[in-house]
C-alpha cells in the first residue's frame, strides 16, 4: 500500500510557530512566503494549524493581530507517520471529528499537512490510471476464454484443492504489478513458504490427511493477510504471497505472525504443523524466475537453520 509520505514533494516542509507567537508574525510570514498553512506547537508537539483562510477571517478584527496565534488556530489535530499507508490514514480519518492531519517523518519533523477532501482527491487522481490499467489486464485475461466461456478463466487461475490462486495467476499479476511498479514506485515483496516435513505427514497419515492440512493452512493464512495481498499455491506444499509494503521489516513481521499462527494452531488431523519462510524484495524490470530463485534461496536457509523460521534475501 502506498505510504502517505509519498504524496508530498521531496524536501517538503511546513513552517512551525510556537503557540504564544502573535498573529501579526503569522501575517508577516504569509505576506512574504508562498504558503497557505503553518503548524502551531507547544514545545515540540503539534497542537494546531493556521491556514491562510483562518488568518483572513481573523483580519475582520484589527485588534486580533496582537493576540497569540492559539486564539485562531484550528485544533485539535492528528499526527500520522509518513510511512503509514494512505488506506489506513483514510480509515482513521473516517472516525475523526476534524479533517486536517499532520504528517511527520521518522525524526518527528513535519513534512506536510493534508485534509480529507484533498487526500481523497489525490487518491482519485492517482488511482484512475491504475484502475484503468488493471481493467485492461482483466479484460485481456477474460478474452483468453471467450465471451461464453469466462468461467474457464477462474478454473485456469484457481487451485482446485485450496481455492486460492495458482501459479498462472501469480505470473499474470506479477507482470501487472511490475508494470505499475515502474510508473508508481510501489514497493513489492514476495514471501515464499512451505510446510516442514510434509512428506512424512502424507506417508504417516495418508494423502487425505495431507490435503486436509493444506486446506486448513490456507484458511489460516488467508485470515492473517490483507485482501489486497496475492496468496498463491505455488505447487505441492509450497505457497507464495505477493505483498505491497513500504519496507521489508513490515513484511518480516507479517511472515513471523503467519509462522506463529501456524505453529500454535491445533490442526484437525492432530498433526503439529510448522512452516519455513523465505522473503525477497522485487526489483523493477526483473523477471519472476529471478525473484522465485532468490526467495527459494532464503527459504532453503530457513530449512537449514532448523525450519519453522523466516529468512530474508533482498539481493
- What is the tally of helical segments? 10
| Largest sheet geometry | 5 strands, mixed
Strand order, sheet with most strands: 8-9-7-10-11
Q: What top-tier CATH class of the largest domain fits best?
A: Alpha Beta
Number of strands: 11
Oligomer: single chain
Strand content: 15-25%
What is the molecular shape?
Answer: elongated
> What is the CATH fold-level name of the largest domain?
Alpha-Beta Plaits
Q: Which series of helices and strands comes N to C? A: EHEEHEHEEHHHEHHEEHEHE
The overall average pLDDT, rounded, is 79
Give the fraction of residues assigned to helices.
40-55%
Taken together, the total number of domains comes to 2
CATH architecture of the largest domain: 2-Layer Sandwich
Instruction: Note the gap between the termini.
Output: 22 Å
Task: Name the CATH homologous superfamily of the largest domain.
Answer: Reverse transcriptase/Diguanylate cyclase domain
Indicate the low-confidence ranges by residue numbers: 147-153
Structural class: alpha/beta
The whole-angstrom Rg is 26 Å
Amino acid at each position: 500500500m502506498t505510504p502517505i509520505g509519498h504524496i508530498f514533494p521531496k524536501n517538503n516542509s511546513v513552517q512551525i510557530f510556537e503557540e504564544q507567537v502573535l498573529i501579526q508574525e503569522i501575517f508577516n510570514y504569509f505576506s512574504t512566503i508562498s504558503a497557505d498553512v503553518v503548524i502551531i506547537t507547544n514545545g515540540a508537539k503539534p497542537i494546531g494549524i493556521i491556514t491562510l483562510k483562518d488568518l483572513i477571517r481573523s483580519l475582520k478584527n484589527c485588534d486580533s493581530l496582537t493576540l497569540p496565534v492559539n486564539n485562531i488556530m484550528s485544533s485539535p489535530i492528528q499526527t500520522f507517520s509518513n510511512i503509514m499507508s494512505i488506506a489506513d490514514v483514510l480509515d482513521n480519518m473516517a472516525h475523526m471529528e476534524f479533517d486536517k492531519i499532520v504528517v511527520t517523518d521518522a525524526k518527528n519533523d513535519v513534512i506536510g499537512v493534508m485534509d480529507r477532501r484533498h487526500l481523497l482527491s489525490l487518491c482519485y487522481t492517482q488511482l484512475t490510471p491504475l484502475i484503468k490499467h488493471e481493467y485492461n489486464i482483466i479484460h485481456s485475461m477474460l478474452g483468453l476464454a471467450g465471451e461464453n466461456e469466462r468461467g474457464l478463466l477462474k478454473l485456469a487461475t484457481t487451485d482446485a484443492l485450496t481455492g486460492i490462486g495458482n501459479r498462472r495467476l501469480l505470473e499474470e499479476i506479477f507482470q501487472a504489478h511490475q508494470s505499475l511498479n515502474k510508473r508508481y514506485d510501489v514497493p513489492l515483496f514476495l514471501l515464499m513458504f512451505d510446510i516442514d516435513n510434509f512428506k512424512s505427514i502424507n506417508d504417516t497419515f495418508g494423502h487425505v490427511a495431507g490435503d486436509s492440512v493444506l486446506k486448513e493452512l490456507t484458511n489460516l493464512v488467508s485470515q492473517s493477510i490483507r485482501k489486497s495481498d496475492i496468496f498463491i499455491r505455488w505447487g505441492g506444499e509450497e505457497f507464495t504471497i505477493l505483498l505491497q509494503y513500504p519496507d521489508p521489516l513490515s513484511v518480516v513481521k507479517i511472515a513471523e505472525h503467519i509462522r506463529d499462527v501456524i505453529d500454535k494452531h491445533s490442526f484437525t488431523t492432530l498433526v503439529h504443523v510448522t512452516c519455513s519462510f523465505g522473503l525477497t524484495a522485487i526489483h523493477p524490470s526483473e523477471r519472476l524466475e529471478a525473484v522465485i530463485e532468490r526467495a527459494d534461496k532464503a527459504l532453503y536457509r530457513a530449512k537449514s537453520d532448523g525450519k519453522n523460521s523466516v529468512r530474508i534475501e533482498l539481493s
